[in-house]
Amino acid sequence: MRIKQGKLKENDISELKRATQSLDYLWNSAGLSFTPKIHGVLSHAVEQVERLQGIRDLLEDDLEHLHQMSKKIADRTNRIKKKDQQARSHSQMEAKRNNSEIIARTLQSQTESKRVYKRKRVDAAEKAATAKKERDENCIETIMAVEGKPYIKMVSFYDNEKASLLNVDSNG
């Protein structure tokens, strides 16, 4: 599901459908309740990925990061008594944080302060590609195993006791 928008391949949708069906099966087998988040994944994720051609860059992590940044700024400006000054200060801090010149200078400073290693490390892109390939293979293996439906439905202690009491009443 974590596919950048526009980077969708042919088999990604079929794999996603298989994965959501397996998740639905496992979720039901475990007897877990359906939260709004799991409902969203099981009922709407495939359709959204198809419509948007990937949703990785629209995920919750990015929104959470934006909320954290906004909270940091709000924490700095909340003590200002006048609301118009508070709003202006908040806007100025947000503008500085999003200023492309400041971002570029920060990245340059970080790059210049990095150590130079004598031995060349494994290329990050190559390492990431290898890791992704391994994850994808493991994912397919797991989906295939779950599609065999090897799990029985879990029964809670309450349901088990209820069933045994009903059996006693019907037999007695």
How is this structure best summarized?
The chain has 172 residues and is mainly α.
Describe the 3D structure.
Helices cover 72% and strands 0% of the residues. The chain has 7 helices and no strands. The chain has helices spanning 10-30, 36-52, 60-77, 83-98, 100-112, 124-147, 157-171. The chain is mainly alpha-helical and 172 residues long. The longest helix has 24 residues, at 124-147. It has 2 domains: 1-58 and 134-172, no CATH class; 59-110, no CATH class. The termini are far apart.
Name some characteristics of this structure.
172 residues; mainly alpha; 2 domains; 7 helices; extended
Classify the secondary structure makeup into a structural class: mainly alpha
| DSSP strand tally | 0
Summed up, the helix count is 7
Number of domains: 2
**Element order, helices and strands?**
HHHHHHH
The residue ranges in which pLDDT falls below 50 over 5 or more consecutive positions are none
User: What spatial form do the alpha-carbon principal axes imply?
Assistant: extended
Main beta sheet strand tally, sense and closure: none
